[in-house]
């Protein structure tokens, strides 16, 4: 199941469970994880992007390691809410990941990178360190936004 509706996603996970958040870019995939009660999201690894089979294997390993029950993928909408090529690429990525059999929520990520960048700057992180961590930090912002919405619709 792939949806953009938090309540549908929550309905597919009546018992909650850990989630993985993904920020798929052209060169990397930022990951983040949340607790089973959907209270807080934390940045995970930033994976180098390659052929889908390799990406899928790396994500499967992370999903198994953390007993993940659902996937939240950032959907990069245009500022006016329309979809461009990057949003279509995220939808295709979600369709490919559906083979894993987990519910997938596509979540609006319009301000995720800016929010992540602001947070890393507030931590007084150097520009080089920010470049290394921005994708996983953005994935955490995406996932936190989704779980904030899910908390109201699931329990």
Which terms would index this structure?
155 residues; six-stranded mixed beta sheet; 22% strand; alpha/beta; Nucleotidyltransferase, domain 5; 5 helices
Protein described:
The protein contains five helices and six strands; from the N terminus they run βαβββαβαβαα. By secondary structure, it is α/β, with parallel strands linked by helices. A six-stranded mixed β-sheet has the order 1-6-5-2-3-4, with helices on both faces.
Please specify the SSE layout and strand pairing:
Elements: E1 2-3, H1 6-11, E2 19-24, E3 28-34, E4 41-48, H2 52-66, E5 70-75, H3 85-97, E6 104-108, H4 112-122, H5 127-154
Parallel strand pairs: 1-6, 2-5, 5-6
Antiparallel strand pairs: 2-3, 3-4
Overview in brief:
With 155 residues, the chain is an alpha/beta fold.
Class based on secondary structure composition and strand pairing: alpha/beta
Oligomeric description of these chains: single chain
Q: Which strand order does the major sheet show?
A: 1-6-5-2-3-4
Instruction: Please give the count of helices.
Output: 5
CATH class: Alpha Beta
Number of domains: 1
Please count the beta strands (DSSP E, at least 2 residues each): 6
Overall average pLDDT: 84
Strand residues, percent: 15-25%
| Main beta-sheet annotation | 6 strands, mixed
Q: Over all CA atoms, what is the radius of gyration?
A: 14 Å
Low-confidence stretches: none
CATH topology: Nucleotidyltransferase, domain 5
